[in-house]
Structures are given as structure tokens and as C-alpha cells.
Specification:
mainly beta, globular, 119 residues, seven-stranded mixed sheet, 0% helix, single chain, four-stranded antiparallel sheet
């Protein structure tokens, strides 16, 4: 069974930095993509950043230049480095792992970690 465990969420002030970690119970090379999503109360979960098996990153426009997604295949861990945090970044951040098999998409999710940006 695949398990994803996020950590690193915290209360920080605007302008500060924070790094989230997502540790997988199996090799992250088994997945086509690893990603971070975020969700605020009453809203849909939205993609923040994604990294392919080969290391190619994608960022949602509002985080470009501020967030960096990276992966350590040896540790089966994906990171999200967040800088210049803003109050509007406040959300529960979820780790996602995805793979495709025979045109079927399989998604796995962590339990989420709270990030609060407030003065």
C-alpha cells in the first residue's frame, strides 16, 4: 500500500520561508509525477507544483519564482521550498503521486499539512 507522509507545515510570517517534505513508502521512481496541491476551506484542491520522473518541474503562475519543487529519489522524498510567503498562500498542502497504467490514472494522496502565513 502506498503511503505519502507530508511534514513541515507551520505558522510563519509574511515574507518568510518554509520547506515541506513528502516521504513515500515506496520508490518515487514508480510514479510518473509527484506534485503538491493546496486547498483552502470550501474550495477545490489546486495544483501548486509538479515534478516529473525525469525532474522537469511545473509551477502554477502565482508561485513561480517563489516556490521550488525538488525530489530526492534515494530518500523517496519530494520537497517544496517556499519563499516570500504571502497570507494568500495559507492552505492545507497535500502531496500527490500519480502514475498511468493502460490509460488508467492512479492517484495517491497524503493526509495534508497546514501552512499558515500570518503576522
Amino acid at each position: 500500500q502506498v503511503q505519502l507522509m507530508e511534514s513541515g507545515g507551520a505558522l510563519v510570517q509574511p515574507g518568510e520561508s518554509l520547506t515541506l517534505s513528502c516521504a513515500a513508502s515506496i520508490s518515487i521512481l514508480d510514479f510518473n509525477t509527484m506534485a503538491w496541491y493546496r486547498q483552502t476551506s470550501g474550495k477545490q484542491r489546486k495544483l501548486v507544483a509538479e515534478i516529473s520522473r525525469g525532474g522537469s518541474p511545473y509551477y502554477e503562475d502565482s508561485v513561480k519564482g517563489r516556490f521550488t519543487i525538488s525530489r530526492d529519489n534515494a530518500k523517496n522524498t519530494v520537497y517544496l521550498q517556499m519563499t516570500s510567503l504571502k497570507p494568500e498562500d495559507t492552505a492545507v498542502f497535500f502531496c500527490n503521486a500519480k502514475f498511468w497504467r493502460a490509460s488508467q490514472e492512479y492517484n495517491f494522496w497524503g493526509q495534508g499539512t497546514q501552512v499558515t502565513v500570518s503576522s
